[in-house]
Amino acid sequence: MRHEPAVLHTRAAVRASLRDVAAGSTVLAAVSGGADSLALAAALAHVAPKLRLTAGAVIVDHGLQVGSGEQADRAAAQCSALGLAPVTICTVSVGRKGGPEAAARSARYAALDAADADLVLLGHTLDDQAETVLLGLARGSGARSLSGMSADSGRYRRPFLAVRRTETRAACRALGLEVWHDPHNADPAYARVRVRREVLPAIEAALGPGIVESLARSAELLRDDADALDEWADKAAADGLVIGALTALPKAVRTRVLRRAAIAAGAPAGALTARHVAEMDRLVQDWHGQGSVSLPGGLVAERSYDRLLLR
């Protein structure tokens, strides 16, 4: 059963993700006990010795459900049985800021950020990527958001972005792993659950199979574009907020420069909206003597002769 195609595919995905990691590095799998993260843990346990890596796991207990501690213990026991060490359980306190999903994510990443590791592997799949793109479309997001999740984000890596959820489940069955089914993943109160259970199936029914792969491919293409525009904006930002230099830039680059300048000046990134940036851009491109623009964080943008000022 260890030669089940799904098992081989998950192992190959993890091996490819870690091919540039120096021998002796510590790599942890973030494990919830669900099929995606358990398949990730199993693949890491198999691949790491061959790459001379120390492989462990970190389980985050959000404490949001009765019995979450026992579930964390079961996940940890399975990780240890796979040969992973160290295996750590982190119990976190989830606040309310941004809603339940955002608050849980913030608490989870705070725990993962504190983990003692060179790399942390996350179990997001191709299906998760497609769902992320659809959610971004529904919010009217720009190219960076629509580019989905990156396979490599600092010390975080996502080896399974080309692996389907059906494959992680098949890998767990083949390896005899006990999968936990989080009831939150079936709760229609969450937008992602509605996308997973209603929206994607409806799109596939209307347009045919392959939608998940197509959405992920679009995300990859958009990420290349967004990376190129960000690089251009980085270089353009060196000229400062000089009106002449800003007006010479394409809008997609200019608005990136303006957004970054506002954040650098103290505007909270999460509160700075596209509307704020558009109003700043009007001071550059369509100025008729209008007054200043109020930005989050008590910041003000105003036109002063040949420059845009942030104070």
Description:
With 311 residues, the protein is of the alpha/beta class. It has 2 domains: 5-204, 3-Layer(aba) Sandwich (Rossmann fold); 239-310, Uridine Diphospho-n-acetylenolpyruvylglucosamine Reductase, domain 3, CATH 3.30.465. The protein is built from 12 helices and 9 strands. A 6-stranded mixed sheet has the order 3-2-1-4-6-5, with helices on both faces. Helix 2 links the parallel strand 1 (26-31) and strand 2 (54-61). The longest helix has 27 residues, at 211-237.
CATH architecture level-2 label of the largest domain: 3-Layer(aba) Sandwich
Bin the helical content. 40-55%
> Tell me, what's the shape?
elongated
Low-confidence stretches: none
Radius of gyration: 22 Å
Per DSSP E runs of 2 or more residues, the count of β-strands stands at 9
Beta-strand content estimate: 5-15%
Task: Please trace the helix and strand order, writing H or E for each element.
Answer: HEHEHEHEHHEEHHHHHHEEE
SSE topology sketch:
Layout: H1 5-17, E1 26-31, H2 35-51, E2 54-61, H3 68-81, E3 87-91, H4 100-113, E4 119-121, H5 126-139, H6 143-146, E5 152-153, E6 156-157, H7 165-175, H8 191-207, H9 211-237, H10 243-247, H11 251-265, H12 274-285, E7 293-295, E8 299-304, E9 307-310
Parallel strand pairs: 1-2, 1-4, 2-3, 4-6
Antiparallel strand pairs: 5-6, 7-8, 8-9
